[in-house]
Amino acid sequence: MTWLGALLPVKDGVAVFAALDQAAKTAQAAGDQRTRGQVMADTLVDRLTGRETGAKPKTEVKIVMTADSLTNNADQPAMVEGYGPVPSAWARDALNDAEVFIRRLLTDPTGQLIAMESRSRKAPDGLAEFIATRDGAICRTNGCDAPIRNIDHIKRHTEGGNTSAENLQGLCERCNQAKESLGWQARPEPDGSITTITPTGHNYTSPPPETWRPAPPPLSPAERKLRRVLLEHTLAA
């Protein structure tokens, strides 16, 4: 479930509420068993998405999930951008509920998004969107939490860096300009981390975002018992 709100001029806000309230009264008078709030919420969705006229909503949904979860062979949660984790079964049902332009971004079992590559210097729109999603829409520079404004090479294109997911990062405007200053270097690491070398020779490593990493499997009864024994032993010591 999620909350939806809007800051409106008084006359518009009152008019919207009155229209939804009237729809609830009409439905309940006709014998609808839903509560007043349920009817109002359903009416809001129906009118905004076009379901009231029988048309399915045409929406773009960016869902990140493992290939196994998509094909119903696994039950790892999916991630809906802008919302968070959702059950994979819910994600599969949601895709069948609308005319959806799907941007499926599949991960391997460790949670790393599958790579994409381009021959051009500038990342194509699809690849740029892939990088922004992979990096969680936040600048990859250590300690920076500004939103991504640029998709740029880690190893410079002029130095042989290719335009691929492994050699691209999302950066804010400030960090993207700073990395072009004299003495700054960066390199991608095999695990998806990015190491930045400053003009003073200091190294800073930005680990890959864990946005899409699946939750660890639950502990077995034996593992829970062992953890309890270890905890009791530690407290006794």
UniProtKB/TrEMBL annotation:
InterPro entries: DUF222, HNH, HNH_nuc. It comes from Nocardioides luteus. The lineage of its organism: Bacteria, Bacillati, Actinomycetota, Actinomycetes, Propionibacteriales. Residues 206-220 have a biased composition (Pro residues). Gene3D superfamilies: 1.10.30.50. Residues 126-177 form the HNH nuclease domain. Belongs to the Rv1128c/1148c/1588c/1702c/1945/3466 family. This is HNH nuclease domain-containing protein. Residues 202-221 are annotated as: Disordered. It holds the Pfam family DUF222.
